[in-house]
Amino acid sequence: MVKLRSFRIRIALLSAVLAGGALVGFGLISWWLIYEAKVSRLDAELESQLMRAGRPRSSEGWQSYETSLGQAFGTNGKTAIAILVIGADGNILYRSQQWATDLDVTNLWTSRPQLPPFPSPRFERQTAPFPAAKPPFPERLQPPPEVPPPTPRFATQHTTTGTWRVGAVTTPFTQVAIAVSLNAVTQEMAVIRNIFLISIPGVLLLVAGGAWGIAGSSLHSIRRLTTVIGNVTASGLEQRVPIGTTDVEFVELIQVFNQMLERLERSFKQASRFSGDAAHELKTPLAILQGELERTLQQAEPGSQVQQRLSNLLDEVRRLSGIVRKLLLLSLADAGQMNLHRVEVDLSGLLMEMLEDIELLAPHLEIQTEIADALCVQGDHDLLIQVLQNLISNAIKYNLPNGWIRIDAHRQGTTVSITISNCSKDIAVSDQSRIFDRFHRGDPARTRKVEGIGLGLSLAREIARAHGGDLTLDSPLSGQTAFTLTLPVGL
């Protein structure tokens, strides 16, 4: 089985996937950039504080310095801050109580820089033009060479107490490490993440809905084309799809389709006109031939071989006249020109009259009836009789020896339903869909001994549809065949 795919759904899904990928990528990059910006701002403040912590302090001084860090980072006591100071001799000068035992900053400290020796003052005597005029004086001391500022190093460490951002610096006097908890940053990023998780699906729904609407609007021309195609029948080939304000991408398709309809209409009209004209032209010579054969048959010697041959010829001419009459009716039905002389038709009375014919034509069959009273419709009396006679004739022809025929007729709302079923061989599955095709007679083994040309059911269905009803083959049951005729009560 071929799996059908919806172009509109594919457009909506593709738009949602593309937009989703773009939004997810934008969200991840934005989240990362925001996080990096927060960490960079924290590193800048850490660097500033590490530069201040480079000079020696007492224990109380370090404690006071730790207190000032909270105000410097603007945490107001909500974010944990810890400090570790190691002296030049390698001993711990100060360590915060919040300093996590599993914080390792040894890889952040660099080798301790050495202070350059302070230069001793140099005295130089100048040769004075008058040697004893002034005593010698010392020249201005030269400044010591500049020491490059220490370079802080930063790292993020995960401990049992949380995630910390650690900055460390090594000076000639101390090694200082400041750790700031990233819990607040993590919470802020979690809020941003939740905002993305909520907003992105909402945006995706809007994108998918917009794509669905745009695709539907774009496919409006296709829907119109589909509607026209669905309404194309033998009586509706004159329909055309208007171009109007159609998108340029669909103009060529609509033009090709309209041209195809025009060709079909022209060909169908030619075929209908030919079949109708041919049937009409054959009526007169056949009527004349039938009249001459009847007159010649009356003049022939009774019981002679000539009379027998004339009788056989007359039967064939009558059969040919019936075929022509049916072809003419079918051509009129195809052209939508089947004229109906509508009168009130009592279907219950017609069925009761036909029961007498069944008893005469097939006395060996069991007749079962369930016919409601006063089943009246507005329709063509002669054509409806032809439909019922065709169904009953088929029920007799295709019955089994000592079989049965059942007629059910009742009213359902504004519809009259007549079901005629009979005992028969099973209809092949391949023939069920073609049983109303013209000149189709089904399995030759089943129809070998049955007269007919395969136009009766096709004509009966066209007559039923011309009345606003239908003729259908019921779901076959084993050992029986059933046809249901439905007609509206009135128009």
UniProtKB/TrEMBL annotation:
It comes from Allocoleopsis franciscana PCC 7113. It is found in: Membrane. Keywords: Kinase, Membrane, Phosphoprotein, Transferase, Transmembrane, Transmembrane helix, Two-component regulatory system. It comes from the Bacteria. This is histidine kinase. GO terms for cellular component: plasma membrane. Pfam families: HAMP, HATPase_c, HisKA. It catalyses: ATP + protein L-histidine = ADP + protein N-phospho-L-histidine. Its main location: membrane. InterPro entries: HAMP_dom (IPR003660), HATPase_C_sf (IPR036890), HATPase_dom (IPR003594), His_kinase_dom (IPR005467), HisK_dim/P_dom (IPR003661), HisK_dim/P_sf (IPR036097), Sig_transdc_His_kin-like_C (IPR004358), TCS_sensor_his_kinase (IPR050428). One of its GO terms (molecular function) is phosphorelay sensor kinase activity.
